[in-house]
Design brief:
Length: about 270
Amino acid sequence: MNPVLVTIGNFEVRWYSALILLACFLVLVLVEKEAERFKVKKEFIFNMLFWALIFGVIGARLYYVVFNWDMFSGNYLEIFKIWNGGLAIHGGLLFGLITVILYCKKYNVRTIRILDFVVVPLLLGQAIGRWGNFFNQEAHGAATTVELLKRLAIPDFIIDGMTIDGVVYTPTFLYESLVCFVAFIILLLVRRGKYIKVGTLTASYLVIYGTLRFFIEMSRTDALMLGGFKIAQIVSVIMFIVGLGILMFTSRKGKFEDLYNDQSNMNEVRF
């Protein structure tokens, strides 16, 4: 599997970087389009997501480095080579979330309202970004057999890509990508619901991705560990509980209270 998309002179463009950039671009476009329905300026969304991306990447890398310190101790320059892989989604989500909260606080905007705009396109971005792991031959599961993957109708090029040093591995990246894409489509439809509450989309994202990642992590062989526990599973449980709590809170509101699609239910963004 060649991780390089194209080489120009001594400069390499890797699939990992290209797919993450594509994912970020699509997330930006889709968030801006949804926010426009509520008369939120594109400049506000662009600046917010620009900083969320910057700090999200930093957070994703720091998260990975901290829990893989043995790989980087004494070889500090490797910390900056993110094009070789090694971005932990939970670290990116955490730092990105903090950035959005601070940004919304600065402009006196209701954070959960903005998060609802972001989380649906974010699922599409994650679905695309996981293919970067495929080209880097990472984020795979336990060893398996060609026969089993063929019975699951896994395409040959994925089986070939998941064959590393003669061993065939479970393409967990594919399963996560597919579920994220399906969840993206479902939440797109849910988002148009007449009585959907503010916060429901954010809560749904937390529940869906928390559940997905918890079970995916069972098979991952490169999981980040804390003692004898997989960190991603701990974080996934927290995500699920927080999401469930938000859903329970929003369900207690009146039928016509705090509706997501009520365009008057959006404080003015002074930017």
